[in-house]
Amino acid sequence: MRFKNLASGSTGNATVVEAGQGSDCRRLLVDCGLGIRQLEARLAQAGLLVSELHGIFITHEHSDHIGCALSLSARHHVPVWMSEGTWLALGQPDLGDCLRLARDQQVIDFGSMSLHPFTVPHDAREPLQLRCEDGQSRLGLLTDLGHITPHVLAQLAGCQALYLEANHDAEMLSRSRYPAFLKRRISGPWGHLENQASAQALAQLKHPALRHVVAAHLSEQNNQASLVRQTLAQALDWPEEAIGIASPTLGSDWYSL
Question: Which DSSP string do the residues of 194-251 spell out, in sequence order?
């Protein structure tokens, strides 16, 4: 199994997860928060085509995660998984037989990998994040949540790779020019994870087989990659260069498990 982020941040989010080989290979796009031309260009940079996607998993209804998902599904007949709450929040779009409703801890058979959705605290209708398994390895994808819960930690235990939100530095956010209501929303229990909270989660999820950590959804105004690397590396007792960063424009490298 391997994964690559295509875009991460408030301007758009999309990550490809791939498992299996040859005719058994399956590729899942987790979130699709880009325009169709952007998505095609980012996939091309990753050596892929839209037609090579076998499914889309939408974590929640916010625009930087939905993007072109509905039109892409209609054009290429790609199945889309989302929670019923997300579907309702989007206005119950007619996806025909491409609509798949996902639920907390209800395993999805995706061929060469299994998908394990789980609920998170975020200001959306019914947000779900995801763990992917191929029988040998586990990948955890966790963004867009205001705080870490015991349920989240349980779902991500034993992962060999983690794609983890480190949205903002608390001090930078407090000193920013953001209006007070937006600061409260971002830093609140239904908003986004700040660096120290992400580090505390990592400290609890650390185990000898954890190989990759990629920091995601960094705020361009209220965070810095150097701060994220320093904070997360300290929690793991890793060198700072071992922490990957997912960029809004460049995404990330491919990471193999």
Answer: BHHHHHHHHHHH--TT--EEEEE---TTT--HHHHHHHHHHHHT--GGGEEE-BTTTB
